Amino acid sequence: MKIIVRKDLTLNELYKTQVRNALVSWFLEEKRDLPWRKTKDPYKIWVSEVMLQQTKVDTVIPYYERFIAKYPSLESLAHAKEEELLKEWEGLGYYSRARNLQAGVREVVDSYGSIVPNTRKDISALKGVGPYTAGAVLSIAYGVPEHAVDGNVMRVLSRLLLIKEDIAKPKTKKIFEEAVMELIDEDNPSAFNQGLMELGALICTPTKPKCLLCPVREYCTAFFEGMQDQLPIKTINKKTKVHKMKAVVIRDEHGRVLLEKRPSKGLLANMWQFPMVELPTATHTIEEVIEHDYGIDIVRGEELIAFKHVFSHLVWEMESFEGKLLLEKELPAACKWFAIDEISNQPMPVPILKIWNAWKEKN
DNA sequence: AACTCGTGGTA
DNA sequence: TTACCAAGAGT
Questions:
Q1: Considering A29, A49, A65, A225, which one is annotated as catalytic?
Q2: Contact, A21 vs A195, CB < 8 A?
Q3: Which CATH number fits domain A241-362: 3.40.1570.10, 3.90.79.10, 3.30.450.40, 2.50.20.20?
Q4: How far apart are CA A175 and CA A47, in angstroms?
Q5: Is residue A175 within 8 Å of residue A219, measured between CB atoms?
Q6: Which of A117, A218, A234, A238: CA 20 to 30 A from A279?
Q7: Distance, Å, A5 CA → B1 C1'
């Protein structure tokens, strides 16, 4: 067997044909039965691709089912209230995905007659649709031969074609996009693109790839060289910074609970939380900082739970307490009192849900 | 280009 | 426990 890989990634025609046929045949035979594979509705494919960004298939499945049941069409999502939308997204993370998805959907409803555009130029202009999602929707929903390069595809192709560039570098992705356009099956770009990702998920895994089960093993340069465990090349990232946070579940004389809506940009944007302060030093008490930040006097009650919550780039070392309102002066506009049975209707991030669940168990 | 933006699972 | 990962996009 002789594998020919030129530096410009132009590949031998016979090699390309054999690889794409082996990959597509394997995918059609072995593909998992996933909910978004039962439809070609561009909207539903779009929803699934956004949910799957940086998120495991097993995590996405129940969210996708609930989301499509609640928002079965572009119009239904376009008309949804943001708080209800975020509630559906609660626990899935990367919440700007949800708001960007709705913004993109509204663009399609308003400017494209509710037809998801079928060119890379137009679909890429939609909010939240980047190079990957554009190619995924185009190829899977419309059968357009466009690249959809994600982490799986870079790992698979780095091994198949022995590409040693650092996949952590943004500009490296272009190499893989060109490689996909060289290899892609123009008769079935949907199965080809999904096949690359499915292969990465099931066979060509980050560690311990199952090469003996691989449908393209005989075409794989890394396997031929015994280098599959050395690829892809990926530089490591830095460590996260720790924030010591203290949250308080404050009740007023009516038994209502105080929530605060986070700013519309940044971490956990537009999500609700309990009043929370960061205490890097011990120079002030929680009551003092709460009074300063929220314009209310409280008395601190019993401790609820303490835990560490790890985000992608920072850590909250969280402590939480009960609190009782003594005096309300100038409540910030982002704050609002809620009856107990209304709390669960507000979209809250996982660490806040943890505190709320601890409070409910105690009370 | 480098940094921001969640969460749960795994070695 | 630490580290890394998983169908990326916005800034």
A1: A49
A2: no
A3: 3.90.79.10
A4: 27
A5: no
A6: A238
A7: 29
Across-strand partners of A277? A246
Express each pLDDT in A83-125 by its tens digit.
999 999 999 999 999 999 999 999 999 999 999 999 999 999 9
Identity of the residue numbered A224: F
The predicted model gives A7-35 an average pLDDT of 89
How many angstroms separate the CA of A87 from the C1' of C4?
29
Report the CATH number of the A13-230 domain: 1.10.340.30
Q: Is A275 helix (H, G, I), strand (E, B) or coil?
A: coil
- Domain range annotation of chain A: 13-230, 241-362
d(CA A18, CA A135) in angstroms, rounded, equals 23
Query: Which residues are paired to A353 by β-bridges?
Result: none
Q: What percent of chain A has pLDDT over 90?
A: 92
| Reported confidence tier of residue A9, pLDDT bands at 50, 70, 90 | low
